[in-house]
């Protein structure tokens, strides 16, 4: 039976466009089904979908950029019973307050000036995201956002929406911080993704600090914790 680290490498290029992405996603999901048939039963969850999210934002070395702006907006729709990735939302975002990326930001995330120059501004990307939520997820479904930490939905999204006078949708006001699920199961609260991967015998794949690749690694963590009979519930609510 292939290991989860092997499955990780099979999905390393899911972010690529066209047939390559579809083929990789089919391969990834077929391996998940093989593991399910092997008798590794996961705890039944109370949700239809997990929405795994991980923003990337403008940044500078050793000082805070004000305001900080989202430059990559990725979300993976994960079936909460099979743990297959059923759909992907991923767009780069053109920053408006600091339109030129710092060298540090590009080196950290691999996101280039060309990537953001050709992207939509946040208001347009967020509208696309809301349409995706309605059409591909379904607001009548039971879903739970999953993040690695609270920063994405507690700090970054509200501040970005405030810059553009956009209300934060109610469904973005509660989420699961996967680090807390890990702490419950493993007895160790870690600061980042890498210690969780190590603790679960998983390998990081893809490009570090690329939002879409971080999302895929979070999915692997989610799946590994589900194998340990972890029940996933919201860990944070905002008003």
UniProtKB/TrEMBL annotation:
Q: InterPro entries annotated for this entry? A: 3-5_Exoribonuclease, ERI-1_3'hExo-like, Ribonucl_H, RNaseH-like_sf, RNaseH_sf
Keyword hit for Hydrolase: yes
Quick check: keyword Nuclease in the entry? Answer: yes
Exonuclease domain residues are 49-231
Look up the domain of life of the source: Eukaryota
Keyword vocabulary terms for this entry: Exonuclease, Hydrolase, Nuclease
* Gene Ontology terms for molecular function: 3'-5'-RNA exonuclease activity; nucleic acid binding
Signal peptide, first to last residue: none
- Name of the protein: Exonuclease domain-containing protein
Provide the species name. Scylla paramamosain (Mud crab)
